[in-house]
Amino acid sequence: KWPFSRVEMATSFNTRTALADIDPMFLERWSPRAFSGDPLTPAQVSALFEAARWAPSSSNEQPWLFLYAAQPDHLKTYLEILVPANQAWASRAPLLTVLFARRHAMRGGQPNRLYAFDCGAAWMSLALQAHKMGLITHGMAGFDAQKAHGLLGVPEDKFEAMAVIAVGKPGDAAALPLALLEREKPNARKAPEEVAIAGYYPAAGAGAAPA
After folding, report:
1. 177 FRET partner, CA 20 to 30 A, in 6, 112, 117, 138?
2. What's the CA gap between 88 and 48, in Å, rounded?
3. What is the dihedral angle through the alpha carbons of 85, 32, 30, 24, rounded to the nearest 10 degrees?
4. Plot region of 76 (φ>0 → left; ψ -120 to 50 → alpha; else → beta)
5. What are the residues whose beta carbons fall under 8 Å from the beta carbon of 20, sequence distance 6 or more?
6. What are the pLDDT digits (tens) for 78-89?
7. Burial 57-66 (b: 16+ CB within 10 A, else e)
8. Could you tell me how far CA 115 lies from the centroid of its own chain?
9. Would you state the torsion angle of the CA atoms of residues 132, 170, 85, 68, taken in this order, to the nearest 10 degrees?
10. CB-CB neighbours of 170 under 10 Å
């Protein structure tokens, strides 16, 4: 029966298998849509963003900016940023955060070529910290970037809206629409040889790397 705990989710229907000796958290972490709706404590919220704060970044620029909603009036505004399909399930998440990326370096003002790369590291840090706390996360590209900037007051010339992230405790998947319920399970990954190649990119037809 739902809701599953983090450990139960990892063992009940997670068929992921590692092909090398890695920490189990990399297999256990995935992106459910079923949230319980239970609020997070201030300490939990602080821990999430503290983990993100210590992510690595080029030249220590730390280009990430997380704006978040954990109160009902704020959550209502943040839900308006999402596309309707995501609003349907994200409305039960007790924490929504928009990840913005600062486009230019703080020192010198030059374009920061690695801002997206660094912000990805901050998001992963938050996601893994959430997992260790027994929480679930789901990152979303389905949102209106202009609304994110307009409703939250973040200048578009300085920041790019990268993603919206839902965080909370696992909930009852049976409450999801059937189409989403069928997808409510960890997914697989590409074969190792498709994502890590020793030496050089193979010539056409000479290897398994994608075109």
Report:
1. 6
2. 24
3. 180
4. alpha
5. 192
6. 999 999 999 999
7. beeebbbbbb
8. 16
9. -50
10. 20
N-terminal to C-terminal alpha carbon distance within the chain: 43
pLDDT at 9: 47
> pLDDT for 117-146, tens place per residue?
999 999 999 999 999 999 999 999 999 999
- Residues 141-200: tens digit of each pLDDT: 999 999 999 999 999 999 999 999 999 999 999 888 888 988 899 899 999 999 999 999
Whole-model pTM over 0.90: no
What tokens were used for 2?
Answer: 């739902």
Instruction: Please give the Cα distance from 47 to 198 (Å, whole number).
Output: 37
